[in-house]
Amino acid sequence: MTETTPGWLSPDELESTRARMPILYVDAVPVRVDDTGVVTHVGLLLRIGSDGTVSRALVSGRVLHHERVRDALMRHLEKDLGPTALPRVPASPQPFTIAEYFPTQGVTPYHDPRQHAVSLAYVVPVAGDCRPRQDALDLVWFTPEEASSPIAQQEMTGGQGVLLKQALAHVGRLS
């Protein structure tokens, strides 16, 4: 099958590339903020993995060839949260951290069995109505305390719970 969208690799090309080099990703932590800019809630997606397990997840995805990082962030936020989420991504976004996912567990807190991936991680305020799409079943808004609880952390895989805690610390909401 021929792919006509620029920047996309065929499944075989992607698998081959993943085996040879790191892939660039973006991770986004969707948040609700009050009038003073304080984070009041964190949005976590509910997903079913390829193995049938249910987990909580951040918005995440690849940056395409010849795609600006900001555009990749917006694309994945719209894909996962819906077109009326109204994310407020600045013109020149700055990541709060860089997460390096390895196929071998234990190298970093982040693990992706498919590949070595480098992800730029952002906290993104959203003001609109979020309606999960694609492979997300639901989006649930948690208080920062609920999101950092052991129960919520256990529901996240691949080190995304660690990334979420870093995001909450970055915005001054980790207790």
UniProtKB/TrEMBL annotation:
It comes from the Bacteria. InterPro entries: DUF4916, NUDIX_hydrolase-like_dom_sf. This is DUF4916 domain-containing protein.
